[in-house]
Design brief:
The chain contains 26 helices and 23 strands. With 763 residues, the protein is of the alpha/beta class. It folds into five domains: 67 residues; 91 residues, Nucleic acid-binding proteins (OB fold (Dihydrolipoamide Acetyltransferase, E2P), Beta Barrel); 221 residues, no CATH class; 38 residues, no CATH class; 264 residues, 4-Layer Sandwich (Metallo-beta-lactamase, Chain A), CATH 3.60.15. It has a nine-stranded mixed sheet, covered by helices on one side. Strand 17, helix 23 and strand 18 form a beta-alpha-beta unit. Helix 17 runs antiparallel to helix 18 and helix 21 packs parallel to helix 22.
């Protein structure tokens, strides 16, 4: 019954949010529920099914109401309004803190809200999590390329006491842990230790995060149910020492400890899931009854989704429950299969090894479709790094909690976290080594992920019926993928390709011909561009083109330059402005030549040809002008395999109007400025695209892409967006073009290409 309640809650939430990817199964669930009411033979069955339908309807109504309400703070940020805000600090930061606004006042009007914002200005850094404050200042939109909440730059700020003692205490412990780790260990090792103990990953650099994602070790630094289990074991041992009898007294000690640990780790979805599940099991067990893990997890799922409907669409929440479901369903059969490889399947060694590997395989197996949906790839050979990491991860967590606590309380024990240096180095070394092996990650589409999951489930299933169902699902998914599953979002184009990478709120376009690759913009930092390039089979970038020095276009190059051979960097004459200084510094460090470009310049990398169409040659202004950065964007026409793509950077309508006398024709257009409404229709008509690719993040404070731009683009052909469809790839082979999207395989076979600079490909 609890499981079906969880399904009903998920169905209602999906319908209420109008998410097509989950609305279809939700509608099917509703139809089946209604059919159950009509076909049920007794009143009890009717009542149960009717209750499920009612739960789904109520959840849909609640989710729809929340999704339909428009946040207030982003609208005030667009106006740069001067407001008075009172709220509670939730997270610390370097230059600003993240808070939850509760009241907003403007022009003698007051609104009660519950929205996130960042707070900067004098006194903001001294705010601690859990503290209440009131501030007067100016609202600003989030920085370009970031999914941050709006910023309140406070001119006057006043602390109002502690609103959440629990959050304040957890924040204080978290800060003490961070200081203790930084004093005893180098930054990388300190960041890993904090990530494995309290989920604080602020010290981890992007390259380390990429290595962990590539090898499937991301769960090591994402505090999960394993960490909760270890913590709860320690608490229960302590509770039994204090209270020899009385189950309810032990529960009274354990449950508040779980709540504190959830706050300590930043209320991560995986911790919330495990904490609620463990709390349910403790409460039920206190009465002497037993509850199975599936029911506890289902109840935790239903509670969390009802309290926060948006959580259902967070990839961390999906991965946490997906891995949990896989472990509950498949870890046992997988362990049995592995144990049979030993001479004595019942030996202690066989039990330990099969149990560990069975759990890992079951977890990875279940989340493959989710990873394919969100990231277009799953761990491959690199997952072998878990052989090194898993056996010592428990030691690091226990040792980390003990040494960080000791170093935080007693200054003469500052050195104790350094005792974790060797196992931390072992995990970092394994991640770095295995992430660079051929096939470390496998690029995969959603249907391919479903096929892999179903096939492996069939292989380890205990019953013939389960094996038959798994094989049928695998065959159907593979057939629906058209045999091209790996082309979607990964290395699958046998010939040339043009790929709009999924880098969130930013732009990065890969143009490749065999071993020769050109990267048009590098996206924002932390978007995993390096891992995506490796997954696509790129081992060297011949030319890195920076259209203009905004962080959502160039900062991702820093990671590429630091970890992959690059032939040269090309950019506009203002490349040193703004965030461009980081790119130039990275190029100098990597000893990569930098070249400025203007209209009339041409570059070649194997079969890739680049024409620079704008801006006109000339020196930059004597004084740096931040408001003119977009106007200096390089307008590039890249041609490969007989197909051209126009990449205009962030050019705006006034800049586009000056270019209408030039030959702009190309069958593919990268939407200017992420689909901004500031666009000249005549410019688009001059390009005459057959397909428009919009590079944009799912969360951005500007509401991009704008409806005006999408309507304009749709007049010329399909409009594909990286926020909803992931990476978009155009495969070019034997004079034909096919378009693949990462999150949905809306693939299309098109007319033969003409081998010319501006062929008619998609007509």
């Amino acid at each position: 019954m609890v499981v079906w309640i969880a399904v009903a809650v998920a169905a209602g939430d999906a319908i209420g949010h109008g998410r097509a990817g989950l609305a279809i199964p939700a509608v099917v669930t509703g139809v089946l529920a209604l059919a159950g009411v009509l076909l049920a033979r007794d009143r009890r069955a009717v009542a149960v099914v009717a209750a499920l339908v009612a739960i789904a309807a109520a959840t849909a109504a609640s989710a729809g109401w929340r999704a339909g309400s428009k946040p207030l703070l982003p609208r005030l940020a667009e106006r740069a309004a001067v407001v008075s805000v009172c709220g509670i600090v939730s997270e610390p930061g370097r230059n600003s803190v993240v808070a939850s606004a509760r009241t907003v006042e403007l022009d003698h009007k007051r609104w009660h809200v519950d929205e996130d914002l960042r707070v900067s200005g004098e006194g903001a850094k001294s705010l601690r999590p859990g503290e209440r404050f009131c501030a007067i200042g100016t609202m600003h939109a989030a920085r370009p390329g970031r999914a941050d909440p709006p910023l309140l730059h406070a001119d006057r700020l006043e602390k109002k006491g502690i609103a959440s003692p629990l959050r304040f205490a957890a924040g204080s412990v978290r800060r003490a842990y961070s200081d203790a780790a930084a004093r005893a260990l180098p930054r990388r090792q300190a960041g890993l230790l904090l990530g494995m103990t309290d989920g604080d990953t602020a010290m981890l650099d992007p390259s380390t995060v990429d290595d962990f994602r590539a090898t499937g070790l991301a769960h090591i630094v994402a505090v999960s149910g394993y960490n909760v289990a270890v913590f709860l074991t320690i608490v229960m041992l302590f509770a039994r020492t204090l209270v020899s009898r009385g189950r309810w007294l032990r529960v009274a000690i354990a449950v508040p400890s779980l709540v504190f640990f959830a706050f300590l780790t930043g209320l991560q979805p995986s911790v919330l899931r495990a904490s609620v599940s463990a709390g349910v099991a403790l409460a039920v067990g206190a009465d002497g009854r037993t509850t199975d893990a599936l029911r506890a997890a289902s109840l935790a799922f239903a509670v969390l989704v009802l309290l926060s409907p948006d959580m259902l669409f967070q990839w961390g929440f999906q991965l946490s429950f997906g891995a949990t479901l896989g472990i509950l369903l498949w870890s046992g059969p997988a362990a049995e299969r592995i144990a049979r490889l030993f001479r004595d399947p019942s030996s202690r060694m066989a039990t330990v090894v099969s149990g560990g590997f069975g759990t890992t395989i079951a977890a990875q197996l279940s989340v493959a479709p989710i990873l394919a949906w969100h990231f277009g790839r799953i761990p491959g050979v690199g997952a072998a790094a878990n052989l090194v990491a898993i056996p010592i991860s428990g030691t690091i967590m226990l040792g980390g909690l003990a040494t960080l606590s000791a170093a935080s309380v007693l200054k003469f024990l500052d050195w104790t976290p350094a005792t974790m240096r060797v196992p931390l180095d072992a995990i970092l070394g394994a991640a770095h080594t295995f992430a660079r092996l051929p096939g470390a990650t496998l690029s995969m589409a959603v249907l391919a992920g479903c096929a892999v999951t179903a096939a492996l489930a069939a292989a380890i299933a205990r019953s013939r019926r389960a094996r038959a169902i798994g094989l049928c699902v695998a065959v159907v998914c593979a057939a629906a993928g058209g045999g091209r599953a790996l082309a979607s979002g990964g290395a699958g184009c046998p010939g040339a390709e043009i790929r709009a990478m999924d880098v969130g709120m930013g732009t990065s376009v890969l143009v490749r011909d065999g071993a020769h690759a050109v990267l048009l913009d590098g996206g924002p930092p932390g978007a995993g561009i390096l891992q995506q390039l490796r997954a696509a089979g790129v081992r060297r970038v011949d030319i890195a083109v920076a259209s203009h020095p905004h962080r959502d276009h160039v900062e991702g190059f820093v990671d590429v330059l630091g970890h992959m051979p690059v032939g040269r960097v090309v950019g506009p004459v203002i490349m040193g402005w703004g965030m461009g200084d980081k790119l130039l510094a990275a190029a100098r460090k990597a000893r990569v030549p930098v070249q400025t470009a203007a209209a009339g310049d041409h570059f070649d990398a194997g079969g890739v040809h680049l024409d620079v169409l704008a801006p006109d040659p000339g020196p930059p202004p004597e004084v740096e002008a931040p408001d003119r950065v977009n106007g200096y964007s390089l307008l590039i026409r890249a041609t490969v395999g007989g197909v051209s793509v126009i990449a205009p950077g962030d050019l705006q309508s006034e800049d586009e109007q000056q270019l209408l006398d030039r030959d702009l024709r190309a069958p593919i257009l990268i939407a200017p400025h992420h689909g901004s409404a500031n666009i000249d229709p005549e410019f688009v008509d001059a390009v005459k695209p057959r397909v428009v690719l919009v590079t944009v993040g799912a969360q951005n404070p500007y509401g991009l892409p704008k409806a005006k731009a999408l309507t304009l683009f749709s007049r010329y052909g399909p409009v594909l967006r990286t926020d909803t469809q992931g990476a978009v790839t155009v495969c070019l082979e034997h004079g034909r073009a096919q378009v693949f999207t990462q999150k949905r395989e809306t693939m299309r076979q098109d007319t033969p290409t003409k081998r010319s600079n501006a062929p008619e490909v998609f007509g």
